[in-house]
């Protein structure tokens, strides 16, 4: 078998890996966001089917471009389908607004959705010479670790997608799957995350302090996963009554609630959603801004959505609390670096204090090594990390006796499968 690295090799974003055999199977087809223009993966040759590990845009965003002349079948979980459709449709709206021109049409999104066949975790599906099974990745609702088993010889290739072993409020641990070839995400291959309880404590203390000062805690969040985690944390800390929810996170939460079997603590999410105030219109936004209060809204890197409406209208007592990693070039990164923001083609200096809290849903360095050792492959392919991370992981794994490899964009790897 040959593995072609069309994206996500030596970089985070635009994950895209083509497994070439009798039939060609594509693992994810995402877009790199946050930079000036979205970056697409290399164009694959023939694709017979694609696996969608989870809905995040860096794994799903380019899928509709495949639905031009051919119509490959797509496999993933039900939440992955619904969240991808939401995020991809939203991206179409944004690119039209920004006149960057859509890379695909509404019709192509429809074709992708029509060709999507959903499977629950642990339910094997037959494709060509393979049996394919999804396992819980512990990253976001419906995120999957994919096992591809060759029916001819029993060899097992495992693609982790994005995963996390340490538990979150609404996600359990990633399931460890035994493999011969392991393709593992390396986002934080050289970094530990601070303990989740410590991060939560600091976050809650800062929220309370802002409320005590009469200000607004503006909490920009990614719509899928992070927003719901933050709401669960606010509920647990008796702060949900003072919390407003705005933007795409509302629709995303609806989808999560429709698939409770993919939520670790369904009751917790339901209680949080029952007690949060949903912002429905302009008046709602004005009320939320009056403070004291907490506003949970999209976009997580301040590159669009209602977060931009709020960020320029905050009272001096208010604070901006970023809950995810801020990619270089995004407004969120600029804010943390003390630089002015780009909003509607204008440069705006924001004076409110801003802080970053590491609520990462990715594997830490400890998680990655634990996964590799327990999965126990012969070959490890280190992907979804910048070159420094993937190369250092591969080097370390070689010293432990693994045949480890950190591919570059466009590389082809021939492997026994
Ligand atoms: Zn992800
Ligand atoms: Zn990712």
Could you characterize what this model shows?
The chain has twelve helices and 22 strands. A hairpin with an 8-residue loop joins strand 1 and strand 2. The protein is of the alpha/beta class and 417 residues long. A seven-stranded mixed sheet has the order 6-5-4-3-2-1-22. It has a seven-stranded mixed sheet with strand order 7-8-9-10-11-20-21, covered by helices on one side. It has a six-stranded parallel sheet with strand order 14-13-15-12-16-19, sandwiched between helices. Helix 2 runs antiparallel to helix 6. The mean pLDDT is 95. It has two domains: 2-191 and 361-414, Ribonuclease Z/Hydroxyacylglutathione hydrolase-like (Metallo-beta-lactamase, Chain A, 4-Layer Sandwich), CATH 3.60.15; 196-356, Rossmann fold (3-Layer(aba) Sandwich). The longest helix is centred in the N-terminal third of the chain and has 20 residues, at 78-97. The structure holds zinc ion (2 copies). Residues 54, 56, 139, 162 line the site of one zinc ion (ZN). The site of one zinc ion has 5 residues, from helix 1.
CATH class of the largest domain: Alpha Beta
Mean pLDDT: 95
Q: Helix- and strand-based class?
A: alpha/beta
Radius of gyration: 21 Å
Could you name the ranges where pLDDT drops below 50 across 5 or more consecutive residues? none
How far apart the termini lie comes to 6 Å
- Strand order of the main beta sheet, please? 6-5-4-3-2-1-22
Instruction: From the 3D structure, determine the CATH topology of the largest domain.
Output: Metallo-beta-lactamase, Chain A
How many DSSP E strands?
22
Query: What CATH architecture label of the largest domain applies?
Result: 4-Layer Sandwich
Query: Helix proportion of residues, in percent?
Result: 25-40%
Tally the helices: what do you get?
Answer: 12
Bound molecules: zinc ion
The fraction of residues assigned to DSSP E strands is: 15-25%
Net shape = globular
Whole-number count of domains = 2
CATH-assigned homologous superfamily of the largest domain: Ribonuclease Z/Hydroxyacylglutathione hydrolase-like
Largest sheet: 7 strands, mixed
């Amino acid at each position: 078998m040959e593995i072609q690295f069309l994206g996500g090799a030596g970089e985070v974003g635009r994950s895209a890996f083509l497994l070439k055999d009798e039939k060609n199977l594509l693992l994810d087809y995402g877009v790199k966001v946050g930079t000036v223009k979205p970056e697409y993966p290399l164009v694959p040759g023939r694709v017979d089917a694609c696996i969608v590990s989870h809905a995040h845009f860096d794994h799903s965003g380019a899928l509709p471009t495949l639905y031009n002349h051919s119509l490959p079948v797509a496999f993933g979980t039900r939440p992955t389908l619904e969240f991808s459709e939401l995020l991809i449709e939203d991206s179409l709206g944004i690119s039209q607004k920004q006149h960057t021109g859509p890379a695909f049409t509404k019709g192509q999104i429809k074709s992708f959705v029509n060709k999507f066949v959903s499977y629950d975790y642990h339910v094997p599906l037959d494709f060509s010479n393979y049996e394919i099974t999804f396992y819980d990745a512990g990253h976001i609702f419906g995120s999957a670790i994919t096992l591809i088993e060759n029916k001819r010889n029993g060899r097992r290739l495992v693609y982790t997608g994005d995963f996390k072993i340490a538990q979150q409020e609404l996600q359990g641990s990633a399931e460890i799957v035994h493999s011969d070839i392991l393709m593992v995400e390396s986002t934080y291959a050289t970094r530990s995350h601070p303990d989740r309880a410590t991060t939560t404590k600091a976050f809650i203390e800062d929220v309370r302090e802002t409320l005590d000062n009469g200000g607004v805690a503006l909490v920009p969040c990614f719509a899928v996963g992070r927003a719901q985690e933050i709401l669960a944390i606010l509920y647990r800390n008796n702060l949900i009554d003072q919390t407003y929810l705005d933007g795409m996170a509302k629709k995303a939460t609806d989808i999560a609630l429709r698939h409770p079997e993919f939520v670790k603590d369904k009751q917790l999410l339901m209680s949080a959603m029952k007690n949060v105030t949903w912002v429905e219109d302009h008046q709602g936004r004005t009320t939320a801004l009056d403070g004291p209060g907490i506003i949970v809204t999209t976009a997580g890197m301040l590159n669009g959505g209602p977060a931009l409406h709020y960020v320029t209208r905050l009272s001096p007592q208010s604070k901006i609390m970023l809950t995810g990693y801020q990619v270089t070039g995004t407004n969120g990164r600029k804010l943390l670096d003390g630089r002015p923001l780009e909003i509607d083609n204008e440069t705006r200096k924001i004076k409110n204090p801003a802080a970053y809290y590491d609520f990462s849903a990715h594997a830490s360095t400890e998680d990655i090594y634990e996964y590799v050792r327990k999965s126990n492959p012969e070959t490890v392919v280190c992907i979804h990390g910048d070159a420094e991370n993937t190369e250092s992981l591969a080097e370390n794994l070689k010293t432990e006796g693994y045949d480890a490899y950190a591919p570059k964009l466009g590389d082809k790897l021939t492997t026994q499968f």
